[in-house]
Amino acid sequence: MSVHLSGISAAALAAAELMTICLAGFTVFRRWRYTFSESCACTLVTVLMVLSCLFQLAFIAGVPAVSIAAEVLLCGLAIITIFRNAIILRQELATVLRFFTTHPVFSATTGIVWCYLILLAFFIPPQSIHWHNLSQVLLFQQQGAFFPSLAAGSFTNPEQTLSPVNITILAHLFLRSHTDFGIGLIGFMAYLSIGFSTYALSRRYAWPPTAFTVTVLVMSMPRLVYLSTTPGYEILPAAVALFCLVSIYRAVESPNVWDLCFLALGLLFMISGPAVSLAFPAILVPLSCLLLFRRHGFTIWWKLIAKHRRIVLLALVPALVFSQSWLFLYNRIYQGDWINHTGLSSVALNPDGIQGAVANFFRYILESAHFTRPVDLLCRWAAGFSITNLWQSIYGALISPVFDNLGAVVPFQISWIPDERLSWFGPFGFLLVLPAVVIALVRAPRRLKAIAISLLGYFFLITLILAWTPENVRFFTIFYVCGGFCIAFFLPPWRISQRSRQGLQIAGALLLLYAGVCNYMKPAVGFRSVFSPTGAIAAGSKTEPELKGVDWKQLLAGSIWVRSGWGRDRLGPSRKLFVDNRVERISALIPEDAKLRIIFKDKVSAYPFLLAFPKAECVSVANLDFDLLKSKDTVSPVYLLFVDLNPPDLPELSTAKVIRRTTSEALLPGGVLLQIP
Question: Does the pLDDT of residue 149 top 60, yes or no?
Fold first, then answer.
């Protein structure tokens, strides 16, 4: 219990730090005459950028503890700023309260759902699909630097070629306290930033009621709701991309050096993840130059830079850090390659060229017609047909005979599973965002038309470069987030009445409520039997799974809160991954002050052990040498933990004592604990 309380306290302290800096940043942006929504959006993104820059500089220098001193100083300055601008906060608080009284029902509904999402983000442990990146941060913390070849000590990173760390390193804010409480707050900050940025951009093309409606529709997209409680590796780049669009609009409307710097830093900050994730930043660069230079020419920007040289020089430091040039240079010199390609292992390339791209286009269009699982079940109950079956039949009748399996890795199958891995963007993504982007391409003003061209170009690149898999939906998050505000141009006042706007807002609130409650990975109640992948329609099946009656005990028992003991059980995802309780058993067998070496192949499997044993050394399988692993201290033994592989059959093992070995029924091999005297 004390361990959990200390973890909660550390996470609460980190959350308080985020809130303090955000409040101060908000007052600064308001003093710079940013609108309320622009101030909120820019604050949420820039605070994360500042922390990422601090953490990266500290790890580059090899002294991570320096970032704590910098954060203390930053919080002190933030508190002073808050007190000096208290009148601004009081005025804005009055504005927010007036909004709540104007929209009481909607505010109450969304407020409850957002509070629930915050609780999910804070208390529920991250799922295993995020463990690869979180393990990387834990490895950085153990070696005290980014560069394993240059780090002091015997640490050997099993994967020494590094991937970009701009967004990955933000988890250090929580993981440095050896806890993953609160780590989902990063995703929630990105989610809120998307909402404020969408409203700010929508106001360029619509009056406040329509802009507010558009914001509701975007924030209710199921996939964004699911991603709002995660470490943010997918949703944060999308939020930063939308932040860059806000900066472009502001810079074009009123040239200033701050928005120019924010745009440049945002473009660089998006460098994170596999190489294909760089596609949209590469598209945004020429788009930014086109919009900025066509409107004002080159001279005005050069004069701004020359006039504000100190600001530009100050921005060069985070720009150099976010560019990851230092990381690519290290990879090239010490590892012989510019970038880590292991992130591409789950990304299959399209070998069929244009034919595969056309086939993928139709697959993505059918997938994007995501009307959610409850609507599918309602149609099945009321009308006797399934929408997913209908889309699958269309594919089987029209697309499959022409293209067969071109451009795809696995057979095409539609399954509306409400989780952060496979879920799409709901009915509004298909019915509003897609047509809005197309209409903007044809009829919008030049600025919006250029953005629509960029979005559709990005859509085409994804269909062309990647072979189809269900998980490719993660590459379309940027498209739907950045295209959401196009709905404001698509729905001008003379085409949508007040009653229609209220209807859309109610539909958005209901969709938000559904997505918040029915999350397959973090269900509020046990709807698992209805929404599980086994409930999806099997390929080629002509029958529908029968719906069972409601079992209230199962509904309660299936809740993520009950299953996790209200957040106290942090090892539930590890038991699901390993299909055994090896983490608890092995942790109980290793003395607290013991010398432990961890050997693993996959960072996902290693994450719970790295979190449980922050002082352990990690040894590469390729460099495994039992003579070197023996303790120099003849009194203290050394423990060797093989996480997801069995120890090699070497003569030296005869002197090692097997403390524990997992059963043969375990899903993954390993879980072997040895003691070398």
Answer: no
User: Which residues, including other chains, have CB under 8 Å from residue 246's CB and lie 6 or more apart?
Assistant: 38, 41, 42, 197, 200, 201
Residue with tokens 């101030």: 39
Sign of CA dihedral 354, 356, 359, 362: negative
Looking up tokens 């906060």, which residue turns up? 89
Q: Minimal CA–CA distance to 124: which of 420, 372, 553? A: 420
Pick the closest to residue 64 from 169, 206, 185, 193 (CA basis): 169
> Which stretch of 20-29, 246-255, 562-571 has the lowest confidence by average pLDDT?
562-571
**Residue 222: closest CA among 113, 385, 332:** 113
Q: What is the DSSP letter of 494?
A: G
Amino acid letter, residue 648: P
**How far is Cα of residue 473 from the mean position of the Cα atoms in its chain?**
13
d(CA 582, CA 596): 16
Q: Quick one: 620 exposed, middle or buried, by C-beta within 10 A (0-12, 13-18, 19+)?
A: middle
pLDDT at 296: 81
Nearest to 281 by CA among 137, 194, 164: 164
Q: Are 609 and 672 in contact (CB under 8 A)?
A: no
| 638-642 β-sheet, strand order | 617-619, 595-599, 638-642, 672-676, 657-660
How far apart, in whole angstroms, are the C-alpha atoms of residue 485 and residue 469?
Answer: 28
With CA atoms as reference, report the closest residue to 505 among 102, 51, 44: 102
Name the CA dihedral angle for 504, 509, 515, 517, rounded to a multiple of 10 degrees.
-150
| pLDDT tens-place string over residues 412-465 | 998 888 999 999 999 999 999 999 999 999 998 999 999 999 999 999 999 999
Question: Which pTM was predicted?
Answer: 0.92
| Burial class of residue 593, CB neighbours in 10 A (0-12, 13-18, 19+) | exposed
Tokens, residue 596: 């432990």
SS3 235: helix
Output DSSP code: residue 598.
E
280, 478 contact by CB (below 8 A): yes
Q: What is the torsional sign of CA 578, 583, 586, 590? A: positive
- Among residues 111, 150, 497, 85, which one has the least CA distance to residue 334? 150
CA distance 396 to 366: 12
Under 8 Å CB-to-CB from 83, ≥6 apart: which residues? none
Measured distance CA(272)–CA(163) in Å, rounded = 7
The DSSP secondary structure of 22-63, one letter per residue, reads HHHHHHHHHHTT--HHHHHHHHHHHHHHHHHHHHHHHHHHT-
Q: What is d(CA 600, CA 619) in angstroms, rounded to the nearest whole number?
A: 8
Q: H or E stretch including 391?
A: helix 387-394
Q: Quick one: tokens of 490? A: 């698509």
What is the pLDDT of the chain when averaged over all its residues?
Answer: 86
Tokens of 436: 């809005």
- The per-residue b/e assignment along 26-53, b for 16 or more CB within 10 angstroms, e otherwise, is bbbbbeeebbbbbbbbbbbbbbbbbbbb
Q: Which two tokens stand for residue 639?
A: 């423990």
Closest CA to 215 of 502, 484, 568: 484
- What is the number of other CB atoms lying within 10 angstroms of the CB of residue 557? 13
CA-CA-CA-CA dihedral for 476, 477, 482, 485, to nearest 10: 110
Residue pair 281/270 in contact (Cβ under 8 Å)? The answer is yes
